[in-house]
Request: fold
Amino acid sequence: MIAAPRPPEQIENDLRRAEKLEWQTIFWVMISVGAMSAAMGGSQAFKTAWIEDVLSLLAPIFFLLSRHVEEKGETSVFPYGFQRAGTLAFFLSASALCAIGAFLLYEGLQSLVTMKHPTIGSKTIFGHQVWMGWIMSGVLLFSIIPPVILGRAKRKIAKSLHDEVLFVDADTNAADWQTGVASIAGIVGIACGWWWADALMASVISLSILKDGWTALKGSTIHLLDGLPRAVDSGQPDPAVQELISRLEDEYPAYRAQVRATGRYLRARLEPRDKPHLDRETAKRLMSEKSWRLIELARGMRSETDK
Amino acid sequence: MRFLRGFTHTYLLCLVLIGVAACGLPVDPRHTTDTVRGGTLRAGLVGNQAQTEFDTAHLKSLAQTRQAELHVVQGTTDELIELLSKGELDVVASLPKETPYRKQVGLTQTFAHPGWTKPRVWAVRSGENEWLIVLNNHLGGSK
Reply:
């Protein structure tokens, strides 16, 4: 078995810190999901915010899982190792976000169209009737603080680690307070007798879930299709990669450089400009059956002296 | 830290808003509480007189505290919920706790009585949150 690549110590430290932050995220999200479940009432916006909270557990869980898998080196069954496990997980969670976002948007719009008037009851607390809407708002106000702090801390590390799962997770967390505020606005709207405010805010929140899902889906699809590596923060082609390509093509003019990312690592290849694929004769000699499938034979370089 | 400042400001604004809103809110989107006060309390009752004795007593005292006249409609649950949803009733009393109509209407807290096999709830028109608190208050004092 060949071990996974070892990043420099600074990066290793950042990875450990990221893991710690993700555990903290899971802890706080679970607490807020629990508190919100206890206060759950008839507000659609509140329910939507709660589902978004539950969904925000996906990214940290996938990050930690893929960290665990990524450490494994190459095996005979997976000869390229598991560097892209995180990207795959990212793609799956993005699909989940899109599907659930679309469903919640449908629910919100349906409530608007059918003019559903949300009912929130009251409970006896210390001998007083307290409207559950206020309790729900209180829980929301509490639940929006930790993700903002954690999200900002994670975003910084995600850039240095070049980890798009972590970055999108951090971005989502940092923007999550807007969901909480929208949900509070929905409940205050109900209190004012505006039945539509709740369904409207629920639709707005579901749009934000859809947007998160779409961004993640785009990023992970590019990654899984071996698209040009992107900068994690802007989503635009990474200038450092562009520089690498032009330097390689300067030094090896007969070749064109191909760069792709597997997880946080980059892999560059030099491809002959005039011959894009392996010739049939060589392929036939190497493979007795279905030799048309073999289109490339490459030899890795591990230092410049390998030329 | 422009971002954090934006967050903190919004946060404080929310606190103030909720604080202000908590006095005198929620109100009813269809004004049941206001129309009942000094007007008529239109109540639906399911079941015979012996079964609804408790509910009738409470409807009477509720009408009294609201300076309203009590107008009772007897019928099946189906009919009464239909009237409630159309706004032709203000409350349907004497429903079982596990009513299948819970999605269409707003329900009070459940309350029990020694003579009953099952706890009961009252129903209000969906969305009438202030009215629901009024009913909860009234029933809450009579456990």
About this structure: The interface with chain B takes residues 42, 116-124, 129, 131, 133-134, 137-138, 141, 144-145, 148, 152, 174, 177, 181, 184, 188, 190-195 of chain A (CB under 8 Å).
